[in-house]
């Protein structure tokens, strides 16, 4: 079976900041050096975003909602990876 290196990153894209001062949150998936980027359709203020953690800062309802959504997206990526690996394993 092939070893696959998977990396998941959430980041705010400051170049697409809205008039309200909100920045869109993007998901970047890297598989064996190949990047895929997609908007999460969620927005956050720069003050409320942790660049290091790739999550919303704080314990507000908004931060908890955003972080829960990001965690569920990350889990979906891992689920797809598992399904893909099972298909590949059965193929070989």
TrEMBL record:
Residues 10-83 form the Arm DNA-binding domain. It holds the Pfam family Arm-DNA-bind_5. This is Arm DNA-binding domain-containing protein. The lineage of its organism: Bacteria, Pseudomonadati, Bacteroidota, Chitinophagia, Chitinophagales.
